[in-house]
Amino acid sequence: MTALGTDLGEVAGFAAQHAYLAGVPLLLGLLISLPLGWVALRRRWLTPPVIVGTGLLYTIPSLALFVLLPGILGTQILDPINVVVAMTLYTIALLTRTVADGLGSVPDHVRQAATAMGYGPLRRFWAVELPMAVPVISAGLRVAAVSNVSMVSVAALIGVSQLGLLFTDGFSRSAMGPIVVGVLACVLLALLFDLLILTLTRLLTPWLRAART
Amino acid sequence: MIATIWAWLSDPTNWSGSGGILAQALEHLRLSGIALLAAALVAVPIGLYVGHTGRGRVVLVNAVSAFRAIPSLGVLFIAALLLLPRLRGDLAFELPSLIVLATLGIPPILSGVYAGIGQVDPAARDAARGMGMTSWQQLWQVEVPCALPLIFSGLRSSMMQIIATATIAAVVGLGGLGRFLIDGQANRAYDEMAGGALLVAALALLIDLVGALLQRFVVSPGLTPATRR
Amino acid sequence: MIRRHRTTALVALAAALTLSACGGGGDPLAEDEGSQEGDSTGDGGQSLVIGSANFPENVLLAEIYAAALGDAGVEVSTNLNIGNREAYMAGLEDGSIDLIPEYTGNLTLYLNEAAEATESDAVYAELQEALPDNLTVLEMAEAEDKDSVVVTAETAEEFDLASIADLAPHAPNMVLGGPPEWRDRFTGVPGLQEVYGLEFSEFKPLDAGSTLTVQALLNGQIDAGNIFSTDPAIVENDFVALEDPESLFAAQNVVPLIATDAVTPEVEEALNTVSAGLTTENLTEMMVQVQDSDPADVAREFVDAL
Asked: Across the interface, do B89 and C86 touch by the CB < 8 Å criterion?
């Protein structure tokens, strides 16, 4: 099947790879930002270096990171892992601050109540603070997901297969079709990610729904 | 690796001339500045309107999110294919990139302005109305000054994104620091490429610093402690 | 209740991310997408990865190789639009790709800067000598696609230009455009300077395909530009491709460059059949078709007609 002169089977393959390159870093970035954000919040003197340091990551142009990482990591030049690492770094840059904000938004009396109920620091984090921070973290995650999807397409300039290849291919042939299909597929993928995160957030915060009804 | 990057950065011949670092940095700033101005011209009025009247809030929030999802590289190529045959001279290469950069800069400003106006203390609004201010006076004399910290943070993050993305525009022949990245990559000159990347990051930080200073200067001192948490 | 909800959601999250991670169902790290042939199981073992440079003709040639090898029962996958020679040669070296369509002259110069031959067979012989042991070229095609320096018809008339050498007195007032790698490559700005004594006032780096270069010529932003000789844009826009009397741009026959350990009798036979059938004429014709249809379809048609 084709649309606008583009093979849709090929587009589906690119989209799957795109979802992988944008999605896995999202998960990895979240896993790394949780402890980072927690540390930034709990150890006051660490707040500026962690927040500023992760923020700095975002100023490095994506193209530069894609090309320079193989030299630093010792990976193959066309290895998608370079893109995964780069996108993970950007996710951390976006999420660390949000995690710190989210955890900081948990009211003190809630934390004290948990402590009074005999919760240790670790259990309090998992059972009380983290769940209550979900709405804020999820908002940050949505921004990161959408921006990851958009940014992955830049990797087409270094020949890593994903939807962005439709852009470079179309442009070099002066063919508008593949580029338009690629843009639409990217936006669709971003919407899908957004929807997934929204649904999971709703499932993870049943008390918010209870309050609404 | 660090030594070769430093060698590239510290070689004075790389700094001077028409394709030198100084010239390209200025070009980068000029293009980013124009893009930011265009983005602000579109985003600020809309943000003020929605924030002040509360109309179209849902549309705006969703539009901002959808805007972010659009891949700049694809839009850049579409704009280039559409506009190149219709324009002449240097404008032909600059306009498509500027449109994309401005588009990219709109969402952060929009959400900053809107959120800034939205979080103005209702008591302050009521007081303004009680003093007999018109809707227009309320907006300019109370809401905008109160919203300045968030408006500034929107402008600053917009500028950061524009500066970082302007590097990609070198793919379609645009000048600026992106040239070192694209040309360095094409010629396998990694020192040039890494040096260029550092320069872009440094430029973004420098401009953000200028933004922070400006913010300090412009925002009413009465507001600063309240916004600091 | 709340607790159970949360566990379910967490499981769903993990499942969803694993699912999206696995995408098409194969190993997402294998560069197997975009291929028409072979399953997407490409685990690097038997699958032959075909790469291409970042311009349409090379993509088309790679698709032709892919179609022909697929028909011969070889399991192949493609990784197209990688970049310029400097980029994909690194990919061949580190094993990211196994096969790529190449051009004899420029490849020889890349491998040996001192290469001197300009005529097809001599270039091919020099290429064989210059190749490292881990790389092999199979038979070359008659089809040729050279770099060329192109000017608009008006410019050609105004300065009475027929060959690159005629540019010499005017170059200091002219801007040259081409792919960014022309800045440092011998068959680019340095060669034009050394062989023809051309000192352009400026070199404007554009894209590797011809989209920007063609527009820049039409817009008057550049006065001379690098476009491939098979590019349909030359005829469409009445451009004049300047002659190359000093043969700076040596013969450029299309040739499959392949990792030596990927050569099998089936692969060799399939690719040699393609090379035997490729001519400059049918390549130019296919380039016109590629402008508004999928290169893979054009390639399929060509291979079926072989």
From this structure: no
The pLDDT tens digits of the residues spanning C216-245 come to 898 888 999 999 888 888 888 999 999 999
Chain A residues lying within 8 Å of B70, measured CB to CB: 150, 183, 186-187
Whether the CB of B178 is below 8 Å from some CB of chain A: the reply is: yes
The secondary structure of residue C243, as a DSSP letter, is: B
Q: In angstroms, rounded to a whole number, what is the distance separating the alpha carbons of residues C306 and C296? A: 15
Domain ranges across chain B = 22-221
- Fold observed for domain C48-144+251-305: D-Maltodextrin-Binding Protein; domain 2 (3.40.190)
Q: Where are the domains of chain C?
A: 48-144+251-305, 147-241
Q: Determine the residue of chain B that is closest to C82 in CA distance.
A: B186
Distance from the C197 Cα atom to the nearest Cα atom in chain A, whole angstroms? 31
What's the rounded Cα separation, in Å, for the pair C216 and C80? 26
**Architecture of domain B22-221 in this structure:** Orthogonal Bundle (1.10)
- What pLDDT is stored for residue C3 in this prediction? 46
* pLDDT, tens digit, 9 for 90 and up, residues B45-104: 999 999 888 888 888 888 888 888 889 999 999 999 898 888 777 777 889 999 999 998
Tokens 């460059």, located at residue: C257
CA B2 from centroid of its chain's CA atoms: 30
Residue type (1 letter), C139? E
Nearest-angstrom CA–CA distance, B165 and B100: 9
Residues 156-175 on B with a CB inside 8 Å of A are 160, 163-164, 167-168, 171
Q: Does B190 touch chain A (CB under 8 A)?
A: yes
Chain B: give the shortest CA distance to residue C86, in Å: 6
Buried/exposed B73-105: b ≥16 CB within 10 Å, e otherwise: bbbbbbbbbebbeebeeeebbbbbbbbbbbbbb
Write down the architecture of domain C147-241 according to CATH: 3-Layer(aba) Sandwich (3.40)
Asked if C293 and A5 come within 8 Å (Cβ–Cβ), the reply is: yes
Amino acid type, C217: L
Domains C48-144+251-305 and C147-241 share a fold: yes
Q: C: neighbours with 3+ CB pairs under 8 Å?
A: A, B
Most confidently modeled range among A157-171, C177-191, C264-278: C264-278
Q: CB under 8 Å to C42, separation ≥6 — which residues? A: C26, C27, C30, C31, C32, C35, C49, C75, C77
Residue to mutate among B28, B68, B73, with most A CBs inside 10 A, is B73
CB–CB contact C184 B87 (8 Å)? no
Contact B80 C204 (CB under 8 A): no
Please, what are the domains in chain A?
Answer: 2-205 (1.10.3720.10)
**pLDDT, tens digit, for every residue of B19-29?**
889 999 999 99
Q: Which residue from C24, C96, C296 is facing A77, i.e. has the nearest CB?
A: C96
Q: Do B88 and C219 touch (CB under 8 A)?
A: yes
Report the predicted TM-score, pTM, of the whole model to 2 decimal places.
0.81
